[in-house]
Amino acid sequence: MGKSRNRSFSELVKQNKSQILKDQEIMEKIERKIEEKQIKKAE
Fold first, then answer.
1. HSE-up of 21 (CA within 13 Å, CB side)?
2. Positive or negative, the Cα torsion across 11, 12, 15, 16?
3. How many CA atoms lie within 13 A of 43 on its CB side?
4. How far is residue 28 from each of residues 2, 18, 20, 23, 38, measured CA to CA in Å?
5. Rounded distance, CA 40 to CA 23, Å?
6. What digits encode the pLDDT tens for the residues 2-40?
């Protein structure tokens, strides 16, 4: 029981990390779009 549970936990951590990386990429894209809009307004 313990070994299989431990393995699934590490798999969950891997999934979490990849999901966090995807979210960071999306947030960076959104931030860039917002910055571009602000720059256009400032000009």
1. 6
2. negative
3. 6
4. 39, 15, 12, 9, 15
5. 26
6. 566 667 888 999 999 999 999 999 999 999 999 999 988
Give pLDDT, residue 31: 97
Q: Is 9 left (phi over 0), alpha (psi -120 to 50) or beta?
A: alpha
One-letter amino acid identity for 13?
V
The Cα 14–Cα 3 span in angstroms is: 17
Distance separating alpha carbons of residues 6 and 14, to the nearest angstrom: 13
